[in-house]
Every structure is written in structure tokens, then in C-alpha cells.
User: What shape does this take?
Amino acid sequence: MSDLEFHAVLKTSDLDPGEAKQVLIGRKEIAIYNLEGAFYATDDICTHAYASLADGYIEGDRVECPLHGGCFEIKTGKACTPPCVEDLKTYTVKIEGDQIFVGLPRG
Ligand code: FES
Assistant: This one.
């Protein structure tokens, strides 16, 4: 049995290419991104201070935080420019039909 539990979050049509949206799974804030038709999920809250990356700017495969301009690689969560030094958590995304699911560890 998979150790991930999948949660339905958005429809694929909810998010245009180059867009991100915040979703809540329980109390966890997660950002869902559409990069040219492929979907990715990371923690939504910047690792530097408190800002929603879903409100940031997507440039290619990166998201720029709206508060102090640090960047992360969306696919890997890697912090790539200061002041961000701590990587973001990333999550498994699965698409079934037009439904986007995010996998979180069980429990
Ligand atoms: S809160 Fe994101 S760069 Fe500072």
C-alpha cells in the first residue's frame, strides 16, 4: 500500500499555464502550479518569512516570492536566490481525468 494519501484539490481547468493557486489540505497551505500543462505542488509559504508563493511570479520553472524576491525551482523546491536558503517541500501530483490530486504522507 502506498504511504501517500491523495487529496483532490483543483480541476486542471482551474489553472492556466504559468499560474499558481493556493489550496488547503486540512490546515496545510500548498501551492499548485501549472507549468506548460504539467502540474506541480510545493509548500505555499516561503521558507524565508511569511508569504504565499501562489501570489508570486512564475518565470520559466521558477517562482519568485512576492515579499522579498527570493526564488525557488518549482519542480524540485530548491531555493535558488537569496534571501531564500532553505528548500521548499514538494509533493507528488497525480491527474485523473480533469482532477488534480496531491499526495501527502498518511497520518
Ligand atoms: S518571505 Fe519569501 S523571500 Fe522573504
Remarks:
- The chain has no helices and ten strands.
- Residues 64 and 71 are 4 Å apart (CA to CA).
- The radius of gyration is 13 Å.
